[in-house]
C-alpha cells in the first residue's frame, strides 16, 4: 500500500495579528521618530509566506530605515499621499512566534495640523482564521514651524 502525507496550505490555520505603536508625544519638524510594529502568529500552524505592507504618511526620502530581523524589506517607494514599504518574512512564521520591526521616519510639517502615521497590513498564504486583526496603524502629531513659513 502507498501512504502519502501532504501539507496543503488550506489546512494551515494561522492567525496573524499586527500591532503598530508610535510615540504619544509630538515630534518636531526635522526630527526622526520611531514606529514599532509587532507581527504575531496566534494560530495553531505556521504561516507560509508571511508578508507585511507598510503605508507611511511621508515621502520615501523621509523613511530613514526599517529594522526587521528575519524579514527582507524593500526600499520605500512613492505612492499617493506618502510611501510604501513591502517586507517578506524570510522563513515561515511558526505558531506562537512574534516579530518586532522598527520604522524610523523624519518628520516634516507641511500643513497647519500635521499627523504622520504608519499603517501595517499582514498577509499569508496560509488560512488566516481571524482577518480582523491583520492590520493596525498609529500616528504622531508633527509640531514646529510649518515648512511654508520657513522661507524656502
H/E topology pattern: EEEEEEEEEEEEE
Major sheet: size, sense and barrel closure? 7 strands, mixed
Number of helices, counting only DSSP H or I runs of 4 residues or more: 0
Distance between the termini: 79 Å
What helical percentage do the residues reach? under 10%
Low-confidence stretches: none
Strand content: over 45%
Structural class determined from secondary elements: mainly beta
Apparent shape: elongated
The gyration radius over C-alpha positions equals 18 Å
Q: Return the average pLDDT rounded to an integer.
A: 92
* Secondary structure: number of strands: 13
Give an account of the 3D structure.
A hairpin with a 2-residue loop joins β8 and β9. The protein is mainly β and 152 residues long. 0% of the residues lie in helices and 50% in strands.
Question: Summary?
Answer:
The chain has no helices and 13 strands. By secondary structure, it is an all-beta fold. The strands form 3 sheets. Strands 3, 5, 7, 8, 9, 11 and 13 form a 7-stranded mixed sheet that branches. The chain has a 4-stranded antiparallel sheet with strand order 2-4-10-6, with no helix packed on it.
Please describe the structure with a list of short key phrases separated by commas or semicolons:
152 residues, mainly beta
Describe the secondary-structure layout.
Layout: E1 13-14, E2 16-22, E3 27-28, E4 32-41, E5 51-56, E6 63-67, E7 71-73, E8 77-79, E9 82-89, E10 98-106, E11 114-123, E12 127-128, E13 135-143
Parallel strand pairs: 1-12, 3-13
Antiparallel strand pairs: 2-4, 4-10, 5-9, 5-11, 6-10, 7-9, 8-9, 11-13
Amino acid at each position: 500500500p502507498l501512504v502519502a502525507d501532504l501539507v496543503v496550505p488550506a489546512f494551515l490555520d494561522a492567525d496573524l495579528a499586527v500591532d503598530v505603536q508610535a510615540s504619544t508625544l509630538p515630534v518636531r519638524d526635522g526630527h526622526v521618530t520611531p514606529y514599532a510594529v509587532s507581527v504575531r502568529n496566534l494560530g495553531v500552524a505556521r504561516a507560509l509566506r508571511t508578508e507585511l505592507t507598510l503605508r507611511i504618511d511621508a515621502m520615501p526620502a523621509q523613511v530613514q530605515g526599517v529594522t526587521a530581523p528575519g524579514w527582507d524589506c524593500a526600499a520605500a517607494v512613492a505612492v499617493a499621499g506618502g510611501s510604501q514599504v513591502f517586507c517578506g518574512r524570510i522563513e515561515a512564521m511558526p505558531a506562537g512566534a512574534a516579530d518586532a520591526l522598527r520604522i524610523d521616519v523624519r518628520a516634516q510639517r507641511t500643513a497647519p495640523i500635521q499627523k504622520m502615521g504608519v499603517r501595517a497590513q499582514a498577509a499569508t498564504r496560509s488560512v488566516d482564521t481571524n482577518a480582523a486583526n491583520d492590520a493596525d496603524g498609529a500616528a504622531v502629531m508633527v509640531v514646529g514651524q510649518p515648512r511654508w513659513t520657513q522661507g524656502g
